[in-house]
Amino acid sequence: MASEVSWFAALCDDDYEFLGVSERALQSSWEHCRGIALGAEEAGYDNLLLPSGYEMGIDSLAFAAAIAPQLKRIQLLLAVRMGEMWPPQLARQLATIDQMLGGRLTVNIISSNPPGQNLPSADRYHRTGEIMRVLRDLLNGRPVDFHGEFVDLTVDPPRLCPTPGGCPPFYFGGLSEAARDVAAREADVYLMWPDTLPAVTEVIADMRERAACYGRELRFGYRSHVIVRATEEEARAAARRLVSRLDSNTGERIRSRSLDTSSAGTARQTELRETADDDGYAEANLWTGIGRARSGAGAAIVGDPDQVLAKLQAYTDLGMESFILSGYPHATESDLFARYVLPRLKHGPLLPRRSSSHGLH
Predict the structure, then answer these.
(1) Residues 6+ away with beta carbon under 8 Å from 71
(2) pTM
C-alpha cells in the first residue's frame, strides 16, 4: 500500500542547525521557506505542510498563495486556525488557493485560541467542529443555513468553489475527548504526533470506533521529525549534536511561545519525554530530545536508512497512510531523507478529491 510522504515548510521560525540557537539565515522568510518548498517538490515529496502561528514567522495563507504558481506537482497542506477568520471569507481564500494549485490543496485544521482569547478546551473544539461543517458545505458549493453556538450564518456559497472535486480533504488531530469527537465527525485524516507503537495502536482503534458511531471512516496520518544517516551511530550523533547548545531556559521559552501549550497532545509529548531512557529514546529509534525546545510534535525517528524505513513500515502496519516529516535544518534533512529513504517507499497523494460526500463513507 502506498503512503503519502510530506515534508514541512518552516513558516513559524522553527529551523535550526543547533536547536534553540537562532540564525538569521534560517529564520522564516519568503526566500528561506520558498527554498524549502521548491526543494521538497524537486525531491519528490507528495505534500508540504505549511504551519500556522501568530507570534512566530510568516503567514501560511499568504505564503500558500505566493508559492502556488511556482509549484507544478506537489500538494500543499495548508494549516488554518479555526476562529481567526470568518468562515465565508476563509472559504473564498481556500477556494482561490486551490484554483491556483490546480486542485492540489489539502487543509490542516488547527483548533487553537486566536491571539488574545482563552476559550476552554471543550468550547474551542465545539467551535472548530461548527466551522469545519460550514467550511465543507461552502467549499462543496452548498448554501449554508447554520445556527450554532459559535457560528450563526445563512449564506450562499461563493461562486468560486474547488472543482471538479469539491472540498479539499481536512487533516485534523487532537487527543482530548472533545478533539477526538470532532475528528470522528468532521475530519478526513486524523493526525497524530509521535508516540510509541502501543500508544498509536490504542488511539487508532479508539478513533476507528468513534468514527464508526457516526457512520464514517477515517484515514490516519503521523507527524514526526526524522534524523537519518548512513549508520545508526551517525544518526544518534546528529541527534546529540542538534541539542548540544540547548539550555533548559531557552527550551522553555521556545515551548511557551506556542498557542497549544496546554493541549492534551502537548501533555502527551511531555509525558513521552519524561518517561524516555537516559538518552531520550521512548522506544527503539524514537528520540524525544526535540521536545525539549518545541511545543507540538516533539520526537524524531532516528536511525540508519533501514531502521527509519522499518519504523515507518511499523506505523504503516498499524494503519498510518500519511507521514508528515521534518528535520533540522529542514532543507538539509529533507535532502537526506529523499536520498536515503524516499526512493525505497511506495508513495503518492493520500486522498483523491471527492465531489460532495461528508467525509469518507
Answers:
(1) 37, 38, 41, 101, 104
(2) 0.93
